[in-house]
């Protein structure tokens, strides 16, 4: 039995079914995919948005090949554009995917010399080496920290990321406030962390954002995230797995030889079945609740997600072509100093005056998510991901705080646009602007991700945490009959990687 039809549950189901196991997946929602789905969000607007997660980096080619997944991931021509105002003049920092003379000139124009770009290139070249060395270990049993360090060509960088505050590691190579901010954001996606602390929180998030498939490139899934999980569901079914939706698991009774799984359907009608093993594809705190165990501190997410459909791309004050600037990650108010200020305010229990965020336009790389009329009319999608907006800030007044957060990010984005964002938004069937916002509380409500934490909890270093974990797949729960598979339940499962589901399947298929 696989509980939870998120992408990790589907990957586990596909591997197990292909190996001849009898597999039933139970998913509480009406569709599978969890946080990796495509939806038509706005009534009367034929655009299939990746409503939650939107870019793929960590899904290993090996899983795609093993499962025969028909998934196409496209590189974006631009890595990032950072809109800034320098000496009162609107400008920006453009980083191409393959950094060439245009990137060099952009660094020079912003920082006044070639030194910052040289530092950037040195830092990211070291990270690229680390990614190449680390990525293959993600699909192996867990290594001890010493064994892993012995396999790396740059063990010093691995050591620094683990032991030192991320802000210090970044400051070794970069000095410009804007440039440092671009680097630091990778340590803060969905993670409420102080980049000056030595708790490793930001360092872990940073690492996961840089190592995917040995390149750290974030790619656009053709057809949106739903196409990725659709391919995983197809692979699971092809092997003979049964996928049951609208089935909420309510209880597990474990015995030495198996588990009885209890669930209810949408009408509250209960059912139960015996299984040899349960693969737990939902968040670990849901397992703790169901088995009435102490799951430790409840996770707390820290992001603002806004989905939009544009009638047209807005013009930029800097004069940059929006079709280029918005094709990559478009950073707004994410300088190192702004990240610090926002963290301090949020940690003090206030919604940051200036919310650091990034936006990105999926349809510039993959127009296939637009319906024919929308495509012909020049419509585009826009996804906004805000940082340092922890769930706690929204608890007292969820709707009012979300509305205020949206007001702030729209005003901040407008500061870089020649025309107000609102004027560029498409309208839905009722005439309302196509803008849908979700706080961590909204994500929790719709996806059962506790605290709305996008990884089900803080990420772990991709290495054995103790000697007992060495040589295992990092999928243990309190019971040998229940195997973790999800983002937060497994050591290396964070993000859309399939690594949690892969590890759960390997644990069951190759007992060690
Ligand atoms: C807004 C947002 C943006 C993100 N952006 C990205 C991104 O761009 N790239 C990236 O790599 N990652 C991103 N992430 C993170 C990524 O989406 C998740 O870490 C990943 O999808 C988790 O997959 P999963 O299969 O482990 O868990 P989930 O996707 O959470 O799936 C768990 C499933 O279990 C089901 N379930 C829960 N309880 C029960 C129950 N009692 N009975 C039956 N079923 C149950 C849920 O309904 C759900 O379908 C983002 C996440 C969010 C929320």
Euclidean distance between termini CA atoms: 21 Å
Low-confidence stretches: none
Mean pLDDT across all residues, rounded? Answer: 97
**Which structural class fits the helix and strand makeup?**
alpha/beta
The major β-sheet equals:
7 strands, mixed
Rg value: 22 Å
Assign a percent range to the helix content. 25-40%
Strand order of the largest sheet: 7-6-15-16-17-14-18
Which shape, going by the Cα principal axes?
globular
**Bound small molecules, deduplicated:** flavin-adenine dinucleotide
**Helical stretch count?**
19
Q: What's the assembly state of these chains?
A: single chain
Number of strands: 19
How would the blueprint of this fold be written?
Blueprint: E1 2-3, H1 7-18, E2 24-26, E3 38-40, E4 48-50, H2 61-66, E5 73-74, E6 78-86, E7 89-96, H3 101-111, H4 115-134, H5 145-151, H6 155-163, H7 166-173, H8 177-184, H9 201-210, E8 220-221, H10 225-238, E9 242-244, E10 248-255, E11 258-264, E12 270-275, E13 278-280, H11 284-290, E14 302-310, H12 322-325, E15 329-332, H13 336-347, E16 357-360, H14 362-365, H15 372-376, E17 380-390, H16 398-414, H17 421-424, E18 435-438, H18 440-447, E19 482-484, H19 499-509
Parallel strand pairs: 1-2, 1-13, 2-9, 6-15, 13-19
Antiparallel strand pairs: 3-4, 5-8, 6-7, 10-11, 11-12, 14-17, 14-18, 15-16, 16-17
The site of flavin-adenine dinucleotide has 39 residues, from helix 1, strand 10, strand 14 and helix 18.
